[in-house]
Automatic annotation (TrEMBL):
It comes from Sphingobacterium wenxiniae. This is DUF4136 domain-containing protein. InterPro entries: DUF4136. It comes from the Bacteria. It holds the Pfam family DUF4136. The lineage of its organism: Bacteria, Pseudomonadati, Bacteroidota, Sphingobacteriia, Sphingobacteriales. Residues 1-19 form the signal peptide. Keywords: Signal.
Amino acid sequence: MKKLVYICLTGLIAFFASCSSVKYNTTRLQSQDFSQYKTYGWLPPVDSLSKSYFNNDIAKGNIIESANRELEQLGMSYNKDNPDILFRYVSIVNNKSRPVYASPHWGWGGPWGFYRPWGMGWYGYGGGFNYPVGSEKFRYAHLIIEAVDRRTDAVVWQARGSAEVRTPEKAINNLPKVVNGIFKQYPVRKK
């Protein structure tokens, strides 16, 4: 029995460790009744001023196809000529930097050494302190999907999925999961 619990816990830890750390945010027009929308259409994607990995046919296809599946599961149908609501997306990839820290635990025995003049315990814990020694550059991507009421031409819902991009190919292949997470934020539940 203990082995089974251990295997299950190890599997859960491995599953959560493998999950991408995509953060989702959403906003909506609070007074809007989203159940009134039965048909949808697409506006062209919004051009962003930042460098975008997602400005290619594969990425566009992954976004639109995934969003169409999600919208159909919400009970909506595609209507090119006279939709109730219009969707569009914008993808943004920013270059960012973050500080890199060092610890005084290095030296006099290494990170797991026996003598630590600034604290005791495992590396990073105890009485020591960390200090910045430089910075590293990284890329952070946002996929934003907006819903526009066709009658009023106003944005009534917007959701964003944001994550660090390590390789463009993996980010493009991960787009269906991000789109799924974005539409979990939509005010109408799946049928």
